[in-house]
Design a protein that fits this description.
The chain is an alpha/beta fold. It folds into 2 domains: 276 residues, FAD/NAD(P)-binding domain; 86 residues, D-Amino Acid Oxidase, subunit A, domain 2 (D-Amino Acid Oxidase, Chain A, domain 2). Helix content is 37%, strand content 28%. The protein has 13 helices and 18 strands.
């Protein structure tokens, strides 16, 4: 096997960059991790992530899953509803692939803070990783592999001259933590509405993360409402029987963007996570897709070779998975976020078929849980 690069520089210490640096350090690689933010600032973000079985396997292999168990909130049912047609499908653990059925959940919700706290603690304890947070970073050596994990506005991607396809959705997204009544504590709900999808994700103890897509100006307006007015508007769009009690944080609105870099490598550098791609949050695919980049980079590094060889190998390997998820989430939003008369019967039929045929539920849930590239492959536990 050809030797691996002597040093790997990871630019960006968010959930994807930090996990990349830790995974490489655990494999014996010498890693330099840089981020302009302090450790406290990296942990301060108020949001939650949907975690699928592909991410569960990665975290387990890296020895992180057990230490995150207290922070992981499982959902054992997934309630999918189309508000325009009143069609509904309920997914259960029985619809999972057999390799995924005995892990206590269709998926999990994980808060940002405990995730980053654990990642930063493990990085600090790993002798192979040198962290430079909010301080100058040494220049990489001439043969180092450069990993850009610096987000959707990646200055590294721009500096490397890698162009991208991108568009801003007319929809924005609003997130808030809310206490709710009427929804089982282990059920996630995805409601398709003409203004955009609304996801309700369990956080434990009767609290839920609301991910509310709507036209951008409406999201901005809702984020500034008084608490009682916000809860009134939320109550008006939630399914019947689900009632909001308390708003637990300040709602945050942010624009939604679809982005795909035209290539994921250049020279001895690679783009990873949202530096290379970004999709609509419907279905909770974003972080899981980013973490499959981490897996892809690990495989490329383990095969050895120069930094340029590893970068090319990684860049070629990630295209199909990223493209399929990006296209699928975009189509899902475009088809279900409207009241087009020609589409309504097709939507009703699609959800009816999902409801009636367990094989279709298993196929769709496997694509969501493990990624479209794993649909026809045997899965490890």
């Amino acid at each position: 096997m050809a030797p691996s690069p002597p040093e790997i520089h990871v630019l960006g210490a968010g959930p994807t960059g930090a996990l990349t640096a830790l995974a490489l350090g655990l494999r014996g690689q010498r890693v330099v991790l840089f981020d302009p933010l302090t450790a406290s600032e990296l942990q301060a973000r108020s949001r939650a992530y949907a975690i699928t079985h592909s991410s569960r396997r990665l975290l387990t292999n890296l020895g992180l899953w057990h230490d995150l168990r207290d922070a992981l909130v499982p959902f054992r049912d997934l309630d999918l509803r189309d508000g325009a047609t009143n069609a509904r499908v309920l997914f259960s653990e029985d619809d999972l692939a057999s390799a995924n059925r005995h892990h206590d959940g269709i998926g999990w919700i994980l808060d940002h803070r405990p995730l980053m706290k654990l990642l930063l603690a493990r990085l600090e304890a790993n002798g192979n990783v040198a962290m430079h947070l909010a301080e100058p970073c040494p220049d990489p050596s001439a043969d180092a592999l450069i990993v850009a994990a610096d987000g959707p506005s990646s200055p590294t991607r721009e500096a490397w001259g890698i162009r991208h396809w991108g568009m801003r959705y007319r929809q924005g997204c609003l997130t808030a933590k809310v206490a709710l009544r009427g929804l089982p504590h282990d059920r996630a709900c995805e409601l398709f509405r003409p203004e955009g999808p609304l996801a309700v994700l369990p956080l434990g103890q009767g609290t839920f993360q609301v991910v509310w897509s709507a036209p951008w100006q409406r999201c901005q307006q809702r984020s500034t409402l008084q608490r009682s007015a916000f809860l009134d508007q939320l109550a008006a769009v939630l399914p019947k029987g689900i009632e909001p009690d308390f708003l637990l944080d300040q709602p945050r609105a942010f624009p939604q963007q679809w982005l795909l870099a035209r290539r994921f490598h250049r020279g001895r550098g690679v783009l990873i996570g949202e530096a290379g791609h970004r999709c609509h949050p419907v279905g909770g695919q974003g972080l899981n897709l980013c973490w499959r980049d981490v897996e892809g980079l690990l495989r490329a590094v383990e095969r050895g070779g120069s930094a340029t060889t590893i970068a090319r190998r990684y860049g070629m390997s990630r295209w199909l998975d990223v493209l399929q998820v990006g296209v699928a989430t975009d189509l899902l939003v475009r088809v279900f976020s409207n009241r087009q008369p020609l589409l309504l019967p097709l939507r009703r039929l699609a959800l009816l078929l999902l409801k009636q045929f367990s094989g279709l539920r298993q196929l769709s849930l496997r694509a969501m849980s493990d990624g479209p590239m794993q649909l026809w492959r045997a899965l490890p536990n």
